[in-house]
Description:
162 residues; alpha+beta; 2 domains; four-stranded antiparallel β-sheet; two-stranded antiparallel sheet; 4 helices
Amino acid sequence: MRKIKFLSFFFLSIILGGCSLRPTSVINPPSPTLPLVGNDKDIHGCIGSAGYTWCERKDKCLRIWEEACFENVSQEIQSLLAQKYNKPIGDVKITISKQEGDYVGGSVLFGQGGLGEGGIFLARRVGNAWEVVFDGNGSIDCNKMRQEFGFPDAVLKPNFCD
Length: 162
C-alpha cells in the first residue's frame, strides 16, 4: 500500500512539475533574427511569398497566373479579342490608330500572322483594365460612344465617326 501511495505521489509530482508558470515560446515573440512567414513585402507592399508581384501598368500587386500584367495597351486588347473570339493570341494583330487618355481606337486582323478577316475596335480603360466596347465591321453609334462611354472626338473622328 505504501508503495502504491509513493508511486502515485511520484507520478503526480512529475505531472505537476511539467506545469510551470514560466512563459513559453508561444507567448514570447520570435527572435528578430528569424524571418516571419508572409513578412516579405517589397517596396510596393506586394508579398512575394504569396506569389504577388508589382504590375506597373495596372498599378497594383497581382499574381500573374491569376491576372496578366500586360506591357502595353495593344497586348491587353489583343488578349481580350483573342479570348472573345477563341483565337490563339498569335493569330490576332492589333493596330492602335488613335489614343486619347483612357480611350483608344484601331483595327484588328485575325488569321495566321494577322492576315485574315478583321475590323475596327474601340476600347476604354475602366479602373486598371481595358474593355473593348465595340468591335466589328458595322456602323458605330457615335452618340452612344460619346454619351454612354465618354469617348472624346479626338478618338472618334475621322476614322470611326464623321
